[in-house]
Amino acid sequence: MVINTMRRLAGILWLAVAVTAGVSAFSVDAARAERYAERIRSMYPRTEASEGERDLIAFVTEVVTEAGYAPRRIGFDRASSMHSFSHSIEVVVPGSLDATIVIATPLDHRAGTPPDDDGSASIAAALALIDALAVAETRNTYRFLFLSGEFRDAGENPLGTQRFLADYFPEGPHAMVYLDASQLPFRLETGGGGAVSPSWLIADTVDTAAQIGFDIVVRTNLNQVHRLGVSTSSEPLRRFLVAGIPGIYVGSGAVGLRPPVVGEIAVDLARFLAAWSARYEHGIPGTWDQHYLYFQIAGRQIVIGEQFFIVILLTVTLVTLLYALVFRRRFARYLRTIGRNVWNLPLLFLLIFGFLSASTYLIELFLRVRRFPTMWEYYPAAFVALKVLLSVLLFSVTAQFLRYLPLSKNGSFYSASALLVLFIDVLLFSAINLSFGYYFVWAYAAAFLFSVTRGKTAKTVTLLIAPLVLLVAAAEVVRVPEIRFIRTILLSTRGDLVLSFVTIPFLLMLIRLDFMIRHPIRGRRSFALRAASLGSGVGVATIIVFVVVSSPFSGQRPQPVHAVETIDYPNLTRSLEVSSPAPLGTLRVSFAGIEHQIDTRDRSWRVESPVLPDVLSARLVYSEFLDRDRAELTIDAPQPIEYLTVEFFSTDPVIVFDANFPFSVASDQRSARLFVGARPPLPLRVEYTVGGVPPGINITATSRVHPVPVRIDGRALDVSTELLIRTRFTQ
User: pTM of the predicted model, to two decimals?
Assistant: First the structure.
């Protein structure tokens, strides 16, 4: 409570300073924000097209109307490849400038989301800012988006964002914040899918948060993963960025530091929105550098822009050329040794790639033996470290036998080769994106010092600091963790190739150091390589013991178990399949009124029942109209339906003239799909007109209500169940 009070005092102080400085600071009503949040929380659950979401839409409309604005309904009536039985709301607060602030927040939440993480505070904060703007003079235009269909489970989210952007073409400067935060710590995301937020927007957001005491975490090195397009980032933010709208995403961390009080969180978010918006009342920057580097060091923000980094690259190149001119003999010796032994490099590269591939195979083999193929997702740091250390172990052991191989015994060759490979890395990764070259510029500078220093201690220190920046970035990615990126590095050939390019210069430096350091025992060699073998071997053994004896599941982190009951009317079958990422072990399962005791090392278990309940009805009526067939399909069920799929199929071309739902025809014209929104009202009437031979129809429905409750009992389980229903009309 003391921390929260101090944060609020800091916010009030900043607002006072902003007014003194001439910034149009918006004053939000804290009590009103709290009331809004508590009222919205009472509408839980608010999944798409649910009663709770309908109540929220009515409440948002009421608040906005009372503030003096006309909310605009954004429906899915004219959408061509999506549908929802809900709709979004847009509120525009006009300003005197052509600049636009976009504030977006989801109306719905993912099914099964706990109340403490349902986004009530974000919606309340946006409404509180609308109230504040109603009594203030604004220069910018403010566009508030309350979006529905953002968390559909069927893989089509975010529908609300897609629907808005389909008809929106930004003109003039823009700044956007997508707000979906519910609890501390707040998290700032800055990109995704190959796009990143502008550096000025990130810096302004962090500055604003610091000035008002708003606790927010920004993970600086993840921008590089966003640029690669392999991050698990906010999909709505990615779509705004790709559409050319500079934006950020403010969400919540995976685990709150304390149980959130929804009213207090709403006040914090509302004050952040007010301060953040006021920052741009005198103009929004129009620049968007895609190649910048962003850091935070000791609480200070550092941004290295594209032009400055180009200067750094040119400086590195000029220093290299200057060194070649001043120390011509040494440089010529480097060139000669590389020229004589250049064939060693592809051989060493293949050797390293082979060791990394072997490490990948051994990790995959271990996961298969454990019957837990996704165990690495629970211990990403351990498995990444295992792969790296195992590769280093294999390489350092093999390198001790270099004297028996026809490879260069000249230490200068390995120093020169490390510099050459790093220089190629700088050029190669900078060509992909200038910001990627930064890590290798650092390593190149360290390798340069490694080559010019003569002392063993100095070379050891420079070898240790050369990969430091890469290791720090990797540690942050693993700590988050960014699962898609880690999967690529850990379990793919492409990841092995990238790691080979990245690690070979440091291993070349290790070999060079080994030539310099004598073994303390006379007659023995390869002291540095033996030390590396010993250290990596101990690390590998420690990690293997850890992953063998450890289980990621406990009372605080129960094992996920998913059960799917499938009722297939065309095949007259009813079954239950229970699955989990890890072996199921001992469970008690109740299905169709029968108890089953199972004990298995498999990750899935299946049982059938002869009883076929009546859980879905479908009636199809055709009528002829000219040379076309008009059809009316009526679907009903005794239990609520979550998702419904209607697909046409035929051996002849499928010709669909119109339908009361959006549809798409496959490129081979042998099938078509109707887009039906989540949680349809029942009975549902589907009307369409087709030509030629009437197609067959596949209907698939999912529900969370079973005809007879499915129960699964066991140790520390997080059980979810689903009812899958299939029926068909043949041609």
Answer: 0.88
Q: Which domain holds residue 452?
A: 331-549
Identify whether the C-beta of residue 276 lies closer than 8 Å to the C-beta of residue 246. Answer: no
* Residues of the chain under the 70 pLDDT cut: 1-25, 153-156, 253-259, 402-403, 518-526, 731
Query: Which helix (H) or strand (E) covers residue 695, if one does?
Result: none
CATH classification at residue 652: 2.60.40.1170
Q: Write out pLDDT tens, residues 4-25.
A: 444 444 444 444 444 333 344 6
pLDDT reported for residue 8 = 43
Residue 90 lies in a domain: yes
* CB contact at 8 A, 109 and 53: no
User: In angstroms, what CA-CA distances link 425 with 334, 430, 494?
Assistant: 19, 8, 16
Residue 285 burial (10 A CB sphere; 0-12, 13-18, 19+): middle
Which pLDDT score, from 0 to 100, does residue 410 have? 80
38 in any annotated domain? yes
Rounded CA-CA distance 666/523 in Å is: 74
Do residue 223 and residue 351 come from a single domain?
Answer: no
Phi, psi of 650 (to 5 degrees): -165, 155
Question: Which positions ≥6 away from 521 have C-beta within 8 Å?
Answer: none
DSSP sequence for 589-624: EEETTEEEEEEESSSEEEEE-S------EEEEEEEE
Domain containing 139 — which CATH number? Answer: 3.40.630.10
pLDDT of residue 290: 83
Domain boundary among 500, 519, 549: 549
Tell me, yes or no, whether 176 and 262 share the same domain.
yes
In a domain, 588, yes or no: no
Q: Is residue 309 part of a domain?
A: no
pLDDT in tens, 393-427: 988 888 777 667 777 878 788 888 898 899 888 88
Packing angle, helices 328-341 and 411-432, rounded to 10: 90
Instruction: Read off the amino acid at residue 212.
Output: I
For residue 304, the one-letter residue type is I
Q: Report the distance separating Cα 519 and Cα 526, nearest Å.
A: 7
- CA 27: distance to chain centroid? 34
Looking at the 3D structure of the chain, how many domains does it have? 3
